[in-house]
Amino acid sequence: MRARASRGLLAAIAAVSAMVPAVCAGPAGAAPAPEPSGGFFTGSFTGPFAGGSAGEAALPPGASPVPWAGAEAFRKSIKVPAVRRHLLRLQRIADDHGGIRASGTPGFDASAAYVAGLLRAAGYRVTLQEFEFPFFRDVDPPVLERVAPAARTYERGKDFRTMTYSGSGDVTAPVQGVDLALPPSPAPSSTSGCEASDFAGFTRGNIALIQRGTCSFQVKAELAQAAGAAGVILFNEGQAGEGPDDRRVLLNGTLGAPTVDIPVVGTTFAVGEELAAAGTTATLTTKTESDPHRRTRNVLAESRWGDPERVVMLGAHLDSVTDGPGINDNGSGTAGVLETALGASVLPTRNRLRFAFWGAEELGLLGSQHYVSTLPAAERAKIKLYLNFDMIASPNHIFGIYDGDDSDRVGAPAGPPGSDRIEKLFESYFTALDLPYKGTDFTGRSDYGPFIQAGIPAGGLFTGAEGIKTEEEAAAFGGEAGVAYDKCYHQRCDTIANVNDRALGVNTGAIATAAFVYAYARTLPGGGAAPGTVQPGSGGGGLAHDHGQDPGHSHTGVSR
Predict the structure, then answer these.
(1) Among the residues of 20-158, which ranges form H helices?
(2) How far is the C-alpha of 243 from the C-alpha of 250, rounded, in Å?
(3) Hey, what's the signal peptide range on this chain (predicted)?
(4) Residue 135: phi, psi to the nearest 5?
């Protein structure tokens, strides 16, 4: 980094201290944290900056001597080549296991063993938290073809995808629309297929064509099967928008659980509108595997340093989809968090660091949901914030920061109190590097969801998935307008070649900065002021909890 940018980052972190006292304010005269070994630091821990800095003036009276210069040094110690080595290893694991690393497969087991082995060797207490989940995969590639009025073959991954937990079948039949709104209403409001009465007059043996909206995909598919449908085509609702608000793009969805036996696929709005034409006959073929009692695991690693009553948690999902190796989604977040954890292993922090690598995220946040739901209330209260990193190196990326304060006034409301402070910390990081950023909504599509529902402040970074980059975003971030942030999202081409090294480096630096700042902060977004200097502690810090099944794992709420 240029020297000017380095100085700017130090000043920005100090400025966050002044603007957001809950991040670092503490009693005047508090004892400094001890200086860790390992050569990461450029100055002593006796003041905010080694030798002073222009940013020091931004600290409020009585601010604690948190080592902000150390945060910059720690960030620099986390090297992109080391992060890429983790990605290369995950790619090799996928290559050795049928091209995938999905939960419930040998590729995921090998990925978990790799991550856990490195963390144990670095001195962390590692827990493999097992849980049961309903496994799903395509055994053979699905087929969707229009037979009449004119033949057309639709492309998997571009025009349609198998819905997670679809049944199997091979059917050629007329396509019958169910309570469709074409053209769509200006705002999302479709109730297509949400009530049994929508299927009055449905011809048994036909393929049901159903529009997205209002109720879950699972409800729609179950009602269609009950009405005698031989297959279901669910298509996006049709409203224009940006990112996850664009309801024209390919519908990637889950039925939540294997409750139907017939084939179910999701399509773009354009494909659905085309199939809605009178006289349409289609062929729909799926061959799938579902196992309602498959087991997988979360990898949880806890530092031996810091106050176990004040937990700073960082996480990324470790699993891929069953269609590809998942190197951007989410090898990138995994690698960034993993290398940060390895670097932080020698730090005698004030607060306890806990790192999570989630299983079965791609099937509905099942790993993180299981973890949060099985934590006793007292253990849950110890987690003062959760930082999530899911897809941090998309090839046509933006730099997205989760909108903790709902300042963008788009979609979901603000996160729990303290989420705004997390957002400000990440904003100051990008501002200091003269890099653009934008808010990204808490849509509930990643592992921060269960933490927010539990009232735990959350934040993190995201570089975009299947959404389409706008002209304004291309002007700000570079890349290509009118193209997906990640054209290989949930596809076999999500390989090591699908990773943008610049985005990977910038975001890994942000992960390291946030980890260090919150590891030493005297007060945290989730509340609770630290006592004096905390020495290494003992105890599980909330990891020793029941590993039974989470009864709420279907997570159908994300599929509307």
Answers:
(1) 21-24, 68-77, 80-96, 106-121
(2) 12
(3) 1-30
(4) -75, 150
- pLDDT digit string (tens) for 269-287? 999 999 999 999 999 999 9
CB 152, CB 258: distance < 8 Å: no
Helix 333-344 vs helix 80-96: crossing angle, to nearest 10: 130
Residue 409, pLDDT score: 75
Determine the Cα–Cα distance for residues 336 and 513; give it in Å rounded to an integer.
12
Other beta carbons less than 10 A from residue 155's beta carbon: 9
Q: How does strand 400-402 pair with strand 307-317?
A: unpaired
Does residue 289 register a pLDDT over 70? yes
Q: For residues 26 and 46, what is the distance between their CA atoms, to the nearest angstrom?
A: 15
Listed in sequence order, the residues at least 6 apart from 502 whose beta carbon sits closer than 8 Å to its beta carbon are: none
Q: What mean pLDDT is predicted for residues 55-63? A: 30
Band of the pLDDT at 441, cuts 50, 70, 90? Answer: confident
Measured distance CA(95)–CA(116) in Å, rounded = 20
403: its two tokens: 């909108």
Catalytic (active site) residue 466: no
Q: What is the percentage of the chain residues whose pLDDT exceeds 70?
A: 82
For 516, the enclosing helix (H) or strand (E) is helix 501-520
Query: Which residue in the block uniquely carries the two structure tokens 């992109």?
Result: 80
Task: Give the phi and the psi of residue 229 in degrees, each rounded to 5.
Answer: -65, 140
Q: How are the residues of the chain apportioned to helix, strand and coil, as percentages rounded to the nearest 5? A: 35, 20, 45
pTM above 0.85, yes or no: no
Residue 308's pLDDT is 97
DSSP state of 535: P
- Decide if 65 contacts 47 (C-beta within 8 A): yes
Residue 434 gets the label, from left (phi > 0), alpha (psi -120 to 50) or beta, of left
Say which residues have a Cβ less than 8 Å from residue 274's Cβ, sequence separation at least 6. Answer: 146, 280
The yes-or-no verdict on residue 32 having pLDDT over 70 is no
Q: Which is catalytic among the residues 273, 361, 362, 466?
A: 361
